[in-house]
Amino acid sequence: MGNSSRIRLSIINDTAKPYRNHANVICFAVVIAVLKSVTFALGGISYDERAFVYKVGSNGEKTVDIILKNDAVFKINILKIITSCPCVSARIERTGIAPGECGLLTAITTAKKFGEIILCTDEKQSPVIRISIGIPP
Asked: Where do the structural domains in the chain lie, given as residue ranges?
């Protein structure tokens, strides 16, 4: 009788494995879908590369506007803005962004490309946000 109960348990365990694997496949598919998204969420601040607004002035000056959104439940302060090149300047509309609110980051350059903008924040989990800005379309 002891042997038959062992066999029964192994049959139950074998039938449970496909369901467990099915759940793993679903979780993997969800992770892939999230990673394929173009919206970046870093710490409590998120931005969408598809929403970058590029402008070129008559003097050849290039500008890009980036909307930053605070997805956290607490206010996040931008403490410092660093650019990867001295030919790029950046400014933010307001340094403190309340939960659910947005702030406008503007980068300006006369070079061919923008490079990277680094935001230093007071957010504990991810205090540094790196935004790569490519060549304007």
From this structure: 1-36, 42-133
pTM score > 0.70 for this model?
no
Query: Is there a contact between 92 and 104 (Cβ–Cβ < 8 Å)?
Result: yes
28 C-beta neighbours (distance < 10 Å), count: 10
Q: Count other C-beta atoms under 10 Å from residue 52's C-beta.
A: 18
CATH T-level topology, domain 42-133:
Immunoglobulin-like (2.60.40)
Task: Give dist(CA 113, CA 62) in Å, integer.
Answer: 9
**pLDDT, one tens digit for every residue, the chain (137 residues):** 444 434 333 334 444 444 444 444 443 333 333 333 444 554 589 989 888 999 988 888 899 999 999 999 999 999 999 999 898 999 999 999 999 999 999 999 888 878 899 999 999 888 999 999 877 66
